[in-house]
Amino acid sequence: xxxxxxxxxxxxxxxxxxxxxxxxxxxxxxxxxxxxxxxxxxxxxxxxxxxxxxxxxxxxxxxxxxxxxxxxxxxxxxxxxxxxxxxxxxxxxxxxxxxxxxxxxxxxxxxxxxxxxxxxxxxxxxxxxxxxxxxxxxxxxxxxxxxxxxxxxxxxxxxxxxxxxxxxxxxxxxxxxxxxxxxxxxxxxxxxxxxxxxxxxxxxxxxxxxxxxxxxxxxxxxxxxxxxxxxxxxxxxxxxxxxxxxxxxxxxxxxxxxxxxxxxxxxxxxxxxxxxxxxxxxxxxxxxxxxxxxxxxxxxxxxxxxxxxxxxxxxxxxxxxxxxxxxxxxxxxxxxxxxxxxxxxxxxxxxxxxxxxxxxxxxxxxxxxxxxxxxxxxxxxxxxxxxxxxxxxxxxxxxxxxxxxxxxxxxxxxxxxxxxxxxxxxxx
Length: 428
Known about the structure:
The chain has 16 helices and 20 strands. It is of the alpha/beta class. The chain has 2 domains: 2-28 and 272-427, LarA, C-terminal domain (2-enoyl-CoA Hydratase, Chain A, domain 1, Alpha-Beta Complex); 38-266, LarA, N-terminal domain (Rossmann fold). Strands 3-19-15-16-17-18 form a 6-stranded parallel sheet, sandwiched between helices. It has a 6-stranded mixed sheet with strand order 6-5-4-9-12-13, sandwiched between helices. Helix 3 (78-91) links the parallel strand 4 (65-70) and strand 5. The longest helix has 16 residues, at 252-267. The protein is globular, with a radius of gyration of 22 Å. Residues 391-398 have low confidence and may be disordered.
């Protein structure tokens, strides 16, 4: 008997079959119901915040307000959160012309006009000043000090000079910081490249510890964010279809603490160790390889040495940049070489950190990929084994998965992660 499984893939789904005798389990975030009224949920959070006055009582007329919003690569439904938040600002006497929405890109590319429009919603797009943070624009940044771990903190001037600063984000899995949310809107969101590089040099200390938030990188983020007067944040926890389950508003620390407890219930899934083959989808971060490989990092913790990880990701935007491709394609680089790049600040530290993680994984396991957005030549150069049999939209696939099963024998143990980029395996 074989079980049919579906994986999200681009705008479609991919179907394949795994023998029941080999299938250890299919692991996804826990199904949770979205709230019935998203606007009402956000409104209630804003009028009943954690450790702060309600937003309408916090602000004053004539104050300049900056609203931080994460970018097009993140699932935060800012277009649903902004209307009740802006209503609260107006109730406090804040004029529309005194509000700036700042898209916090970190090191990501800037959003297109259409991506900004979708992110903030049609009404906000046409009514408010909208700026996009550029981490390399040193003239737009202000130095605030050093963290105890030596990270120099430069932050976008709009954030520092505002009378009030409010953040909008969601709490979900983050391969670098354990979970998103909290101070990540500041670092990496609104920080300088040098600040991001210094902070991300701490990431290797958390290798193979997904979901942990008491590691140096995450603690450094919160310390850096505390140098900014972030008056209130609104963080949401999302359902599998990216609708709001619960909204939290208040101080960054308290909101992250309360939201994290719920997020863990959603995204952390008990899985056995010793898996031979993990088949994992890059969804919902499959727009490029740089983002999608977080699914590989999560699956890695349950796959045995000598096992295989098959990443399924459409990657319509390709690899994620020429610099990232050339770094990954350098087959002479060992894990230590990537660490030296981090220490010496050779190139983008975020790329070198990911290169380090993938180099360690590739030294112990085989990486396979099914994608339509990247050429076979490029994939092989980066150390991925390309499975051309898995390229058809919605078509049952046999030979690709079957080939892996034959390689590992009749007792091969297979785990499937349909939302691999947002599923944190907890080894049991």
